[in-house]
Design brief:
about 575 residues, alpha/beta, Immunoglobulin-like, TIM Barrel, 2 domains, about 25% strand
């Protein structure tokens, strides 16, 4: 993962594939994470396609300063100075973000320019060993070789499947929460999510088309009834809170990949003429208008320097909720993609992919199977799944030879009577989150997306019928004007910072573990210890053995760099 950096700051092109949104948990479904493993997917499965990312010309890192509360302690940094780090605090980033080699799905990491990247800046320094546990998150250690029998062995010659990236969702409420922070702390939040050296290094981002349930209010991009030609289509609302959020991320990571999906079409395209609940109208004129609505979104965002690489026609088409939502039958989705969306994008936006997503609720399997067993499948580049769909992932890959994306991480604090053991953004939720991430990856997804990357500490969405305070990776106390770095953020970072797009997931034996081999030959091992006490482990990677200590109820990442 030898990224190169430069000192220039610029917003540049972007690209992406992915999906996400928080919905109902499965009725009666288990939510315990961190114990046990999932079965490996069968052989086969398609590799994600898509063009390479646009290259940026660099990007400046955020300035130091401000007060950040880490998972186990606080940190305060003076202007340009070192952080005074508490247990679990993060040191501030200081380097500039480079323009060099963007990593697309299957892309390379090579930078442009000289041997040290554009502008001759030194390469980003990667750590070889880092651990996290309750109260002591993100502790960089020294990796030492050792002798003895290995308890964990990485077999990088046994490839289990392709990997394309980690990411999260841009929502208005996230940017609105960050407005309460100082500029330095707001920059810090963005750095924690996207910076390659001192952050989670997310490569993908989901954009809502119109309001999600975490918009500041309900809206679409064209509420002019009967405007089938989209003459009044406008992203003016998005320029207030959504696009500034996206561009802040691009300033840190110019090679981001983006995908998008609507929660609700314009109300005049629905049977109930409302944002919440209701079904999609089925007449050809409305379906043509909806396809044009999605195309115009891609085109208008491109004018803002934001390249949307893929669209998913509907967030959770099997759910009707008391927030922006819309029902689609399997037959309607098939007809829409086959006769309207697919042909329009093929002619008008040939470089923009159509994915079948984002699927949640067990009834969504009928939609997937109906579409993928029809002529509509020729237009579908991948399948997006989220809650309650893990049991179908391996079957989709085997049957349809398309990449599958996990489009939404479970957002916790569920409104179903289980809240006593799932306080928002706590250590228990971090352990639970590991279970979800691990299992979906073992089933064969090649992307994994967080839901809200940032929220206020209240975590409420637009649903007033069923109160539900959801979790985010970073939380803002808007009263105290402080940024809280949650334990779950670090769980994501243990994987996302070191596993590159284009990596291959490889076999690992022993422990509760995942492993990848990056395109540049680096090997990444992430292992979890479900016991209460720290354990000493001997791990075998690339012909050498190392001794590591994994905290109780915690994680260790070992990053063995090629060469």
């Amino acid at each position: 993962m030898m990224y190169r950096i430069s000192s220039a700051l610029a917003l540049a092109g972007i690209s992406i594939l992915g999906f996400v949104a928080c919905s109902d948990p499965a009725t009666g479904g288990g939510d315990g994470g961190g114990v046990g493993g999932a079965g490996e997917p069968g052989a086969g499965g398609g590799v994600s396609s898509g063009g390479g990312p646009a290259q940026g010309t660099g990007g400046g890192a955020p300035g130091a300063g401000g007060t950040i509360s880490g998972a186990g302690g606080s940190e305060t940094s003076g202007t340009g100075g070192e952080a005074s780090q508490g247990s679990g605090g993060e040191s501030p980033s200081g380097g500039a973000q480079g323009a060099g080699g963007a990593d697309g799905a299957g892309g390379s990491d090579a930078g442009t320019g000289g041997s040290d990247g554009t502008g001759g800046a030194p390469p980003i320094v990667e750590v070889s060993y880092v651990t996290s546990g309750p109260g002591e998150y993100w502790k960089v250690g020294t990796l030492e070789e050792a002798s003895g029998a290995a308890q964990i062995t990485v077999n990088d010659g046994q490839v289990l499947g392709p990997w394309s990236g980690f990411g999260g969702t841009f929502n208005e409420k996230g940017w609105d929460a960050m407005k309460a922070l100082s500029q330095a702390d707001r920059d810090r939040a963005i750095s924690l999510l996207f910076d390659r050296e001192n952050g989670a290094a997310f490569t993908h981002g989901r954009i809502p088309i119109g309001s999600s349930d975490y918009g500041l209010s309900r809206y679409s991009l064209n509420e002019t009834a009967g405007d089938f030609e989209m003459k009044n289509f406008s992203i003016a609302r998005d320029k207030q809170d959504l696009i500034p959020y996206i561009k802040a991320a691009l300033a840190v990571r110019p090679d981001l990949h983006f995908w998008a999906s609507p929660w609700s079409p314009p109300t005049w395209m629905k049977t109930n003429n409302a944002f919440d609940r209701g079904n999609m109208k089925e007449d050809a004129q409305t379906l043509d208008a909806h396809a044009l609505y999605l195309a115009r979104f891609v085109e208008e965002y491109e004018k803002e320097g934001i390249i949307v690489e893929a669209v998913h026609p509907q967030n959770e088409p099997g759910y009707l909720q008391d927030y922006p939502s819309c029902g689609w039958s399997a037959n309607l989705m098939t007809k829409y993609i086959r006769d309207h969306l697919g042909p329009l994008f093929k002619q008008r936006l040939p470089n923009t992919q159509v994915w079948l997503g984002t699927m949640s609720n067990p009834t969504s399997k009928t939609i997937v199977d109906t579409v993928m067993q029809s002529e509509a499948a020729q237009f579908v580049s991948g399948i997006g799944v989220q809650w309650n769909q893990d049991q179908y992932v391996a079957g989709y890959i085997s049957a349809y030879k398309k990449p599958v994306m996990q489009t939404e991480h479970r957002c916790g604090n569920f409104p179903n009577g289980n809240n006593t053991t799932r306080a928002p953004n706590d250590d228990a939720y971090a352990r639970e989150s590991w279970g979800y991430i691990r299992d979906y990856i073992k089933y064969g997804v090649s992307y994994y997306m967080a839901w809200n990357m940032v929220l206020d500490t209240g975590g409420r969405n637009l649903d007033t019928v069923r109160p539900w305070a959801q979790n985010a990776l970073l939380a803002v106390d808007v009263q105290q004007k402080t940024l809280l770095v949650t334990p779950t953020y670090y769980v994501f970072r243990h994987l996302s910072q070191y596993v590159d797009p284009g990596a291959s997931r490889v076999q690992v034996q022993g422990g509760d573990s995942l492993a990848w081999k990056n395109p540049d030959g680096d090997i990444v091992l992430v292992t979890y210890n479900n016991g209460n006490n720290a354990t000493q482990q001997i791990v075998s990677i690339a012909g050498k053995t190392y001794r590591i200590s994994v905290p109780g109820r915690g994680w260790a990442t070992v990053n063995i760099q090629a060469g």
